[in-house]
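Re: weekly structure request thread

Next one in the queue (260 aa):
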Amino acid sequence: MITLSTDSLHGYGLNRIFKLAKDANYDALDLCVDFGNFDTFNTDYVKSLVDQYKMPIHSISAPQNARAEKIKDLVALAKAVKAKVLILQPPKILNFKLSTWIKNEVPKLREKEFISIAIENASGATFLGIIPEYSMSNTQELKDFKHVSLDTARIGEQKKDLMRAYAVLKKYLVNIHLSNIFHGKKYAPPKEGIMPLESFLTKLKQDRYPGAIAIKVLPKFLHAGDDEKVVDELKTIKKYCDKYYTNVEVSKEDKEEESK
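Done, posted below.
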């Protein structure tokens, strides 16, 4: 499933984002909640757009440092719109209360509500160049949390090997935010940049990755403001993903290797 992160069209109203994604033939949306934009977490309004455009919401992405009560509200939103995954951002390193709550209480909430609640790999931001800005940022902590969303741009930003990161985390992955690094900038379209995304996408298909691939790029790369160009660029990205992922056939050898 190829979905579109609504963050890719930040600046547009949610209604327009649904329409543009529909016109570009995306399978579903990754709804990025912004607590300053009431439309993004108004359950009745979001449900009305899902019905109007026949465009499901596969995942919901929480904003940075969403408090415990807000996370519970987002779980309720996810269930109401039938989203499969709620994606949390890693807390700031000094937010011990939130970090502890996520580690201890979210697994219980996940089991109680029958919904996947994932943590996303952190960006490479640091204090004084050495101290990570975010907690839950190392591989072991991600694995311990069990459900992981992988942001490829953050892997590239840290100059890590994407294929190696995938190999370590693949059994825990429930969502992928796909984008590239272009001239040192994160969130470029997949086909523009230095990361080996063709090989990555094909490997995902060969491994029968069960989650969604959510396109998350900066609005400027989509020519935001010109709807025709936006749809054209979104279609180009979708065709790229279809070529290297959706339409890739899994060979008999791949199936046998997977079963071992």
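The chain has one domain: 2-259. The chain is about 45% helix and 20% strand.
Next request, please.
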